[in-house]
Amino acid sequence: MNEMISELRTLVAIARYGTFAAAGDRIGLTQSAVSGHMRRLEKHLGFALFARTGRSAELNEAGQQVLGRAREMLALADNLGAPVSQEEAYGLLRIGAIASAQPTIAKRALLPFHRFRPGHKVHIAPGTSLELLDRVDTGALDLAIIVRPDFGLPRHLRWIRLVSEQFVLAVPPDVEDDKWQDIVSTRPFLRYNRVSFGGRLVDRLLERTGTAVMDWVEIDDIPTLLRMVAEGMGVAIVPDAEAHRGEMKKVGCLPLSGQEIVREIGIVAQRASQNRAVTLFIENCIEASKQQDPAGSASCPNPKS
Asked: Where do the DSSP E strands lie in 22-126?
């Protein structure tokens, strides 16, 4: 069953992005893995899903019918834990949030939301930006707080900007050099996962500047990256985010002088949604994004220049 769910997610991605290669890039699979998913799905169903012409992956009539059913099945699979009756389902807001948004924007938005809708239940689902975007797209989530993707959103989705986070080079406290490119070229590089939208920004920065790095570890968890930097295990290019303030205080920071990059955090939601709870929570998030935790500033506490 798990394999079938993965294959259906791949089918939806192909339909959205147009080719096997583009779908694989968005969901973190190789083109051959995407092709394998579709071969298995077609074998299971007993008929072809694509018109095998040209370079684009064009669904045939049967494929279009399966696509509609796949979206329904994925929405049901993603929402298995939700209340099953209409009476129970009333007053449930389904939110997705990346890890750094949960203890900051999402947490601050919940208090005024609860004040105005005390009987409303809220479920916050974790995940990567790409995973949460897919779940909003299929209707499994009402909205999600994510990193803005590096590709255009489908027309039925809208984007609401909240905050921008500048990337910095995190270095062990004893590093004295102030030239970021020299540092990343000569020390073990702890890489922000390239499957994530933020990780792609880092990858493009290194490619654009022709900066060679000594890759060692690639991981999606930024607090872990910062703890590794603090212990002298290497250096990392990471967003200077409010949620990571505790770990940032234990490392040194360098600006990416002349090559600044930022990741935009915002909300993705269905454009046609008339859900008043969704509208209220978005408004609360906008206000929450203007605030900072009173414990201190989110700016890099230990600048090296």
From this structure: 50-51, 58-59, 92-97, 121-125
Place domain 86-163+264-289 in its CATH homologous superfamily: Periplasmic binding protein-like II (3.40.190.10)
| Token pair recorded at residue 143 | 């909205």
Q: What six digits make up the tokens of 42?
A: 């077609």
Q: Residue 73 in contact with residue 8, Cβ under 8 Å?
A: yes
Give me the CATH topology for the region 2-78.
Arc Repressor Mutant, subunit A (1.10.10)
Contact 256, 165 (CB under 8 A): no
Instruction: For 208, list phi and psi in degrees, rounded to 5.
Output: -65, -35
Instruction: Return phi, psi of residue 120, to 5°.
Output: -85, 130
Using CB atoms within 10 Å of the CB of residue 127, give its burial: 0 to 12 exposed, 13 to 18 middle, 19+ buried: middle
Q: What is the DSSP letter of 20?
A: H
Q: Please answer whether residues 149 and 13 qualify as being in contact, where contact means their C-beta atoms are separated by less than 8 angstroms.
A: no
Q: What is the mean pLDDT of each run of 10 residues along the chain (305 residues)?
A: 82 86 86 91 91 75 85 73 47 93 96 88 93 92 95 91 95 87 94 90 94 92 95 95 92 90 95 87 94 57 63
Note if the pTM is more than 0.90. Answer: no
Q: E strands along 172-287, which residues?
A: 188-192, 214-219, 236-239, 252-255, 262-270
CA 199 vs. chain centroid, Å, equals: 10
Residues 243 and 79 sit within 8 Å (Cβ to Cβ) = no
